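Notes, p. 3: input format for complexes.
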Amino acid sequence: MVIFLKRTDTLDKYVIRGGRQLHGEVDISGAKNAAVAIIPAALMVKGVCRLENIPEISDTDKLLQILSRMGARVSYLGKNAVELDCTSVHMSDDIYDMTRTIRASYYLIGSMLGRFGEAKSTMPGGCNFGVRPIDQHIKGMVALGAEMDTGGGFITAKAKGGRLRGCKIFLDKVSVGATINVMLAATLAEGRTVIENVAREPHIVDLANFLNSMGADIRGAGTDVIKIRGVDSLHGGAYTLIPDQIEAGTYMAAVTATGGEIILNNVIPKHLECISAKLTEMGAEVEEYGDRVLVRRTQPLRHTNLKTRPYPGFPTDMQPQLSTVLCLADGVSVVTEGIWDNRYKYVNELRKMGAEIQVDGKTAIIEGPVQLRGAPVAACDLRAGAAMLIAGLVAEGETTIEDVIYIERGYQDFVGKLQRLGADVRVVSVPDEPCPAVPDVG
Ligand code: EPZ
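Output follows (442 residues plus EPZ):
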């Protein structure tokens, strides 16, 4: 069952003609990284959840399909709203073809343990930034009383005695995923759990708010200590997800690159503070109006330095986009990737367009200004793909971007939203020709 996933029998690419400024308004969609945690969390709810502001992207569509294969009744209500009834869900071996393609599938381990006292899923997929261990997820589950096995490409777990038991956990690393997964597992555990050294991202707070609105007892999300009093069950209800901090930041970076003036609707300015501050350093003007933000850039771009850190620091998921803008700035900029081992694959694609970037380990030295030139490039991962779009918007001539399936994992209607802001960008669908059948040779 497809909820809102596009046809997958075409290999789309984006074609952009650069040189236009952006003007107008853009509506920011719900937060992807909140949705991919809240949908698995709904598995623990014995009742009906109505979720509003769900982004219509392939990652959320896949998770909704996974829950459907586990017996959930999934109804797409239109306008970014879905209804999930997980009253009669069950374990299923029919989900692995999808769980291995997305990172957030490992959240099913925490929610399955909470709901069933056992769990089985594949090792997660997701963007390739080098090694992406899950040792902190395992540490938390084991501390809660789960027997874990990660052999053969699968993660299996079983709660000793049939139900997890609360405890105190100190995470060795600030990890969004481990924080979320352990929070999920502890929600229905017996007794109290205290998790220290947790991540503080907005989507962690959103998940805690969703769970509490369904009857959980979670305190401290958004600080570095989360305290959970386990409950016996969760009831249904309605919840509206927060807007996407990174989608908003991407459009802010785009207009800073092209010049012009745009208004972003449906944002939480507090979540954008670090991005707004950095873009202002570079010559943009950012004005906040309640749940809207105006971004204007009329001055020449200035170089700056940036280092990615856990929230509320500068988000790693904005690093490729900002590095692209820095190619256009006057002077030398230093970018340090503080979270991932190898998040510079997109640099090779930018170099095809004339970028002057040297990468040494986790540091990129960017020399500007350069006039980027359109070229055929590929999206190496989700945010790298967004960076290619920004590059294409400012490049001379035509840029084509392949492997846009990565972009469509995390951005709802990216091309349509850019077109409405005045960009010359279009989708070209190339039929995904099936390999000709090899004739039998008898
Ligand atoms: C989440 O990934 C996001 N994905 C990523 O966004 C984001 O880049 C990342 O958080 C950091 O903000 C989702 O939310 C689905 P981590 P996650 O666990 O949870 C190390 C996007 O573009 N670590 O916070 O996988 C890890 O190697 C995506 O939307 C361990 O060592 O990230 C990394 O160095 C890309 N052991 C650091 O912690 C563990 O058990 C932070 O990783 C877990 C993580």
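Residues 237 and 273 are 31 Å apart (CA to CA).
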